């Protein structure tokens, strides 16, 4: 009868149990299964680890280490970039690990902003003087048209005078508009002078329109018999207001014109 497995000397056999390894008796019978974790009973020493177990353990450790390295790299890849820089990607697109830089704004195609001051004080004074020259030319045309109606030389001349007076009123309105667009901030006291000039041209435009109505009413008149009714009186009143405003303007304008070498003017030349 065979000796009980618990008392028989045993040893580890890697080929036992179909290659899985196991403890066997001296006669070759399998005594118990399991890896040799410590000193085996009856052999008085440590056990060797089977090669397959070693390979599986090492392989698992390598996989875990590789996974840990990959996680660390993914975690820190976004934090090491410089702020505002995007990872390079094909086609110029930013990668998902960092925000894309915003493209610089293209230059606007709108109109440039006008400067608060247009040129030097001398240039501003010259620009205003050019408006005065235009106004002087209109005044001469208005004076000639009023005289043509008053003399009533012919029906055609009176009708032509009425058209000239209407056109003059439109040009006076244009002068007011152009004056408001003319920079005068570099000229001393120019703001007050410009206000007087604006009032003068507005009164002149009102006078021109009233004279035009008077001329239209006078068509068909006889020489020396042109009526001077309420419309003519209204035109004359507006003309007087314009003259007063022009004189106030010239009082303020004269020292500016002298300073910048511009021609002297009186109320008949603006």
Automatic annotation (TrEMBL):
This is Uncharacterized protein. The keyword Membrane applies. Residues 1-43, 83-120 are annotated as: Disordered. The chain crosses the membrane at residues 53-76. It comes from the Bacteria. It comes from Streptomyces eurocidicus (Streptoverticillium eurocidicus). Residues 23-34, 86-103, 110-120 have a biased composition (Low complexity). Keywords: Membrane, Transmembrane, Transmembrane helix.
